[in-house]
Amino acid sequence: MLMKLVNPRFLICSSKPLFFLSLNPLNFSPFPLRRHIPKRRTLRFRGCYSSCCSRSFSAKATMLNSPPPVHVRDRIDLTDKEKQIFDRLLQVLRHFNLQTQLRVAGGWVRDKLLGKECCDIDIALDNMLGREFCEKVNEYSSSTGEEIHGIGVIQCNPDQSKHLETARMRLFDVWIDFVNLRAEDYCENSRIPTMRFGTAEEDAYRRDLTINSLFYNINTSSVEDFTQRGMADLKSGKIVTPLPPKQTFLDDPLRVLRAIRFGARFGFLLDEELKVAAADEDVKTAIADKISRERIGHEIDLMISGNEPVKAMTYISELQLFWAVFSLPPVVEPSTPEGSERLCVTFMDSSWRLLQLIGSTSFNDDQQRLCLYAALLLPLRNTVYKDKKGKKIPVASHIFRTSLKLKSSDAETVMSLHLATEKFISLIPSIISDENLQILEVNGETETNDNVQPTSRRRIVTGLLLREIKNYWRASLLLALLLYPEDIASNTNKDMELNEQRALYNRVENTILEMGLEKVWELKPLVNGKEIMDILQIKSGGPIVKEWQQKLLEWQLAHPSGSAEECIDYMKSKRARTE
Hints:
- The protein contains 24 helices and 14 strands.
- The chain is of the alpha+beta class.
- Helix 15 (365-376) crosses helix 17, helix 16 runs antiparallel to helix 17 and helix 19 (473-481) packs antiparallel against helix 21 (494-514).
């Protein structure tokens, strides 16, 4: 039985942050230093911007040039499950008298040598197709009276980095991929190679990195290093291509991003020749012309979701690939200053360190991922372009939808985070104090001039903001703290600054929780639209019903223990006063 399968591959780790830089990326308040900040503002980073970023990246460069300690095992120790699987494959060879060499390829070998467990087993075959061998496995199982398994066939799909058909089947509750060894010949204007059966050495040299070119020969129970440097590079913590890097990247420019991703993930150093090739103008052009934007977005998403997102983005910036990856429309307003990509990375670094200090329990994986994206694009939050109809669109939306081809819902969430961040900046002083809230507003319709106590006003405005951003309010609060206020940002002790930011985050979070607003977006209205229409004695809805729904929501936020009857009484009373 054959079936077509999709081939999802994700491996996400976690670790401590790499760098410790100034929490406010510019070390100055980018806005006028007033207690209440205007809603619309533009981030200003000329002047001291360049010196700040140069300090930040100088510190990073120092860190990235330090050789990482890497412990590599001398041999691969199999788990009981792996031994069971490999023994079965060898039984199939003996039963059919096959001369096939079975090799585990790529990431599994690398991870096992690094002492990491890996369930991603890819078997490379030297003289037959993966589907053919899977059929032999089933034939053997049938001869011994055991259950046979379905064979999934992952079709050739260059946009998914699959240049040959791959067969997949389940053995002892583990999915195994089978593919033949291959060699590649590339055409000048395509990243899609012409494939043919190859030797193990040819297969090793056509791989992206030397650390991914190692094989574990199941027949001989030994590690094979056909490039003669895979083990050495693994032990020295280096990211190197098996063949000259520029030609390797021109053949398949996606390898540039993979090199960056693995370098960040393992804390390995990028080879100097590789870095020169990655920054080459021909390679940048090839990234734009030969790789689908979906594949670029997939690699970036793996970096952002990985254990060292800041390090990955730092590599992309230092190799001058930032705008090749996060491409902008031809005309944007205002124009982006030179070096602004470094500011983007510095904002992301600040958010990452604060996330680590706050702790992972407050954010799920998706909230953390989108918070990091929002921080990375925070300096561009007021930069727009015009679509075909002349409508102004945030460039961050273009980056998500066009440059990276990520989900529209991700773009919308990041846009919402940017808007909510602006509002949180103005709201923070009043959340943590007893200040009057009359000048604060969330949606332009908040009736804070009613006869309402300041604490109730605070609950109204905060509740309306949280209803806008919902589960991402903590991410929005964190982003707001990157810009607020001067007394923390000017602190010369950066560790103290970080701790003060965490203390302020905890203070605001606790105040919101004490106000009972944790799930305020799930609050059900005490009076529904039909009841409002009955009170108003109208037969159809419209703006007037929406207006009253907003007023009653605010009353409900101001009176968390209020009943439906009290809410209706308020409505009737207010209506009588306005007529």
